Amino acid sequence: MQNDITFYQRFKSDILVGLKVITIRDRSESHFKVGDKLRVGTFETDEYFCTIKIISVTPITLEQLTEEHAKQENMTLSDLKKVISDIYPNENHFFVIHFSLL
Ligand SMILES: CC(=O)Nc1cc[nH]c(=O)n1
Fold first, then answer.
1. Which structural domains are found in the chain, ordered by start?
2. Which terminal CB of the chain, N or C, has fewer other CB atoms within 10 Å?
3. Is the ipTM here above 0.90?
4. pTM exceeds cut of 0.90
5. How far is the CA of 23 from the centre of ligand 1 (A)?
6. 30, 57 contact by CB (below 8 A)
7. Residue 73 and residue 60: Cα distance in Å, rounded?
8. Active site residues
9. Atom in ligand 1 nearest the alpha carbon of residue 25
10. Gap from CA of 45 to ligand 1 centroid (Å)
11. Which is nearest to 84 in space by CA: 101, 68, 69?
């Protein structure tokens, strides 16, 4: 069966133990709806590793990211801003996708 969303392998362990409960994506991955159940795979190999349920999808800019978002990503705020800027160069409009592990 196909996966619905992928995460870099380096995030997998944090997701599986509940330390990472949000993901910040651009508009191309903002179509998920509250209650959707998504199969999750690794970006590198598309190997399935868990299923998540969408709690909320909220628009945000890079400047609006807070310490709370960083905590939900299990990172410092400066690391989070760098990670997002590295993944999405020249983009400022994002969506915070809050999820729970099923
Ligand atoms: C594959 C991929 O884009 N992964 C991302 C992007 C942003 N946040 C995140 O947690 N994972």
1. 5-101 (2.30.130.30)
2. N
3. yes
4. yes
5. 6
6. yes
7. 15
8. 20, 23, 73
9. 7
10. 14
11. 69
Is 21 strand, coil or helix? coil
Distance CA 16, CA 11 (A): 9
Q: Measure the CA–CA gap between 69 and 76, rounded to whole angstroms.
A: 9
Q: How far is CA 81 from CA 23, 44, 100, in A?
A: 12, 22, 22
Q: Which residue has the tokens 């760098």?
A: 82
Residue pLDDT, tens place only, 56-100: 999 999 999 999 999 999 999 999 999 999 999 999 999 999 999
Number of the ligand 1 atom closest to the C-alpha atom of 20:
10
Q: Is there an atom of ligand 1 within 6 Å of 7 CB? A: yes
Q: Which residues contact 68 (CB under 8 A, 6 or more apart)?
A: none
Pocket lining: 43 vs ligand 1, CB cutoff 6 Å: yes
